[in-house]
Amino acid sequence: MTIDYYYMDGSPPCAVVTLTITALGIEDKVKTRRVDEMNDEHLKDDYLKINPQHTAPVIVDDGFALSESRAIAKYLVAKYGNNKYYPQAIKTRALVDQRLDFDIGTLYPKLIDIYFSKILKTPLTEAQLKKMDDALNILNVYLKENKFVVGAELTLADFSLGVCVALMEAFEISIEKYTNIVRWLTHVKSTLPEFEEIITKTTNDGKKLIEIMSKSQ
């Protein structure tokens, strides 16, 4: 049975799903399907039937459609990885979920601020930079006594937060002063298969998309 994986170029959430597929070694089970956002493929009826949010990533596995990168990652490791990277111990899993929620609610919006500043060709405001610094400081605290964001083992929280921080760095946000983050990101890069390759492709595709969108402003 093949998993249909719908993705968009330059999408950080899609990078998280691609990392998960690669880490689980299930590439042979997956058929990738590129969604061309610039040509409004995400708004076509066939795609909206799969995902009314008209976003990516989306997977369809034996007729079961699922959107949202963190939900997809959890599903994939549960079905195809025996919950690898998503520990079953209640307290540990709760911390993984909390870190994932921290990413989507606190850190990831700061990455979106960076993207929009590039599209609009305007610098980040002092308020935006302060909120970004606050969010990175929190992550730095989480990592103070941990190799990864939840203890000594790699989890899905590292996938998602790793993508976010690596892309911040790629888009010229310095993380040098957050020494725990620097140490952790080095571990993530060396531990997760193809992490740097996936980040490089996401960065390059993102820059192309930003250039196209900025011309329309």
TrEMBL record:
This is Glutathione S-transferase 1-1. It comes from Papilio xuthus (Asian swallowtail butterfly). GO terms for molecular function: glutathione transferase activity. Residues 89-216 form the GST C-terminal domain. One of its GO terms (biological process) is glutathione metabolic process. Keywords: Transferase. PROSITE patterns: GST_CTER, GST_NTER. Residues 1-84 form the GST N-terminal domain. The keyword DNA-binding does not apply. CDD domains: GST_C_Delta_Epsilon. Homodimer. It comes from the Eukaryota.
